[in-house]
């Protein structure tokens, strides 16, 4: 198993480190355009492997030659959000970056599964799909896993319960129009709608939607990377171990949920072949309307692209 991580910034480097520590690959390649950064970080990670007892080869490079034959490519490259900046503000700059990275990676690893982490997530997933020419099962956006993790965190904190017993579903685009589903979010199987008043749920839903910018506002000069990298690695592990996990991921829909020709977060079965099934759960009229609106927002952003 060979895994390439494109982008040696905070998200990319932390993603690579978690993959190495979990021994999810025999070789991890870190690619970045800045000379010395991927080489230095890769060497540092490699020197940690004796301590962590992780037999993984780590390579840092500015070239895509070393990525050839990768089974999974994780794209984290792009500029991060700054205070006052929406995900949409990132579109034009990051589109050019993700387009270039995808072209280079796909040429060297035509059988790879691509996981997109770069923002705006849903639009960048579309860019990777179109530029790579891969089938939709092999281009997946990391969104719902992160959004659900944030929702789970806030639920567990609010109720003062173990995070292990909390499950949550967040669908839709990775942005202001995301669709947390309280009805499908549970504590030890009990829907949170039975455990807290609606006003509290509404507050936690809003905080989940604002989860990324809340961290940006604290950091001032950066954005989240611990939770995003953990979320990306959860997807990597599901693929590497062929776990058939049901995870909320950004997928290219072709009729599912009544939606077509758009990337949007939905439950998928994630295994060795990538997306092996799009799981269609029953939504009420309000939830479906929210998902439709979220999908329309993504479609609108995609329509503005000039690939």
Throw out a few tags for this protein:
307 residues, L-2-Hydroxyisocaproate Dehydrogenase, Chain A, domain 2, 2 domains, 6-stranded parallel sheet, 9 helices, alpha/beta, Rossmann fold, 3-stranded antiparallel sheet
Number of strands: 14
**Which CATH architecture of the largest domain is right?**
Alpha-Beta Complex
CATH superfamily of the largest domain: Lactate dehydrogenase/glycoside hydrolase, family 4, C-terminal
Annotation field: number of helices: 9
Rounded average pLDDT: 95
CATH class of the largest domain: Alpha Beta
CATH topology of the largest domain: L-2-Hydroxyisocaproate Dehydrogenase, Chain A, domain 2
Side-by-side strand order of the widest sheet: 3-2-1-4-5-6
- Overall 3D geometry? globular
Q: Helices and strands: which structural class?
A: alpha/beta
Which bin fits the share of residues in helices? 40-55%
Termini separation comes to 32 Å
Characterize the structure shown:
The protein has two domains: 2-141, Rossmann fold, CATH 3.40.50; 144-303, Lactate dehydrogenase/glycoside hydrolase, family 4, C-terminal (L-2-Hydroxyisocaproate Dehydrogenase, Chain A, domain 2). It has 307 residues and is α/β, with parallel strands linked by helices. It has nine helices and 14 strands. The chain is globular, with a radius of gyration of 19 Å. Helix 2 links the parallel strand 2 and strand 3 (57-61). The protein has a six-stranded parallel sheet, sandwiched between helices. Strands 7-10-11 form a three-stranded antiparallel sheet, covered by helices on one side. It has helices spanning 10-21, 37-52, 91-108, 121-132, 144-159, 198-209, 211-219, 226-240, 285-303, and strands at residues 2-6, 27-31, 57-61, 72-75, 113-116, 139-141, 166-167, 170-171, 179-180, 186-187, 190-191, 245-254, 260-271, 274-278.
